[in-house]
């Protein structure tokens, strides 16, 4: 995976060059901006050139056909010519909250051991939907306490790679019931929380669970006959 956010989620600046820039958006030789996917929002920030022109990036998406990462801005924003050297500056405050909450959701899936039917996050809150029957009673305080214990224990978080064939032989690692990773790929990215969790994921994460900080369970909702939604937020 060549994109820099896969190599190092903590990079906040990157020098690169423009491949093309048109009405569809800005495509660069490389990027630190994470594109919308896996329930995690696309990154925002700025792209600037040596002349001082700064372009505000309002969203980042991956083109479905070409698989290129496209940086979006206002329709009337200036455009860079192909080959222009530019510097990317990530909205790190927003991205880091995404990283903290995304890792917290992985821990939540360890606290509530049930199939995950959906999930999403923003910089303000995050949620998972679980496939739970009526016999399940979720206690808000117990979930919050268990989740914060895992955070305080400060487990290392690391990236591993496996093949689709190998993952097909370990389907218990796939917690999401609604969307499964493409098992025909030669490489699939896994996120390991040491001694706690291992599951496929393409998102950005913190390096240790202690970085998440204290979280609160904002609410628990019934979403249909079996789905229960748990919404969490960072205490800060």
Give a verbal description of the structure.
Helix content is 18%, strand content 35%. The protein has 236 residues and is of the alpha+beta class. It folds into 2 domains: 4-90, Elongation Factor Tu (Ef-tu), domain 3 (Beta Barrel); 95-234, Threonyl-trna Synthetase, Chain A, domain 2 (Threonyl-tRNA Synthetase, Chain A, domain 2, 2-Layer Sandwich), CATH 3.30.980. The strands form 4 sheets. The chain has a 5-stranded antiparallel β-sheet with strand order 2-1-7-3-4, with no helix packed on it. It has a 4-stranded antiparallel β-sheet with strand order 8-9-14-13, with helices on one face. The chain has a 3-stranded antiparallel β-sheet with strand order 10-11-12. A hairpin with a 3-residue loop joins strand 11 (188-193) and strand 12.
By secondary-structure content and strand pairing, the structural class works out as alpha+beta
* Architecture per CATH nomenclature, i.e. the level-2 architecture of the largest domain: 2-Layer Sandwich
Order of helices and strands: HEEEEEEEHEEHEHEEEE
- Summed over residues and divided by their number, the pLDDT gives a mean of 93
The name CATH uses for the topology of the largest domain is Threonyl-tRNA Synthetase, Chain A, domain 2
| CATH H-level superfamily of the largest domain | Threonyl-trna Synthetase, Chain A, domain 2
Q: Oligomeric state of the chains?
A: single chain
Total separate domains: 2
Domain Alanyl-transfer RNA synthetases family profile: 1-236
Protein name: Alanine--tRNA ligase
Keywords: Metal-binding, Zinc
InterPro entries: Ala-tRNA-synth_IIc_core, Ala-tRNA-synth_IIc_N, Alanyl-tRNA_Editing_Enzymes, Thr/Ala-tRNA-synth_IIc_edit, Transl_B-barrel_sf, tRNA_SAD
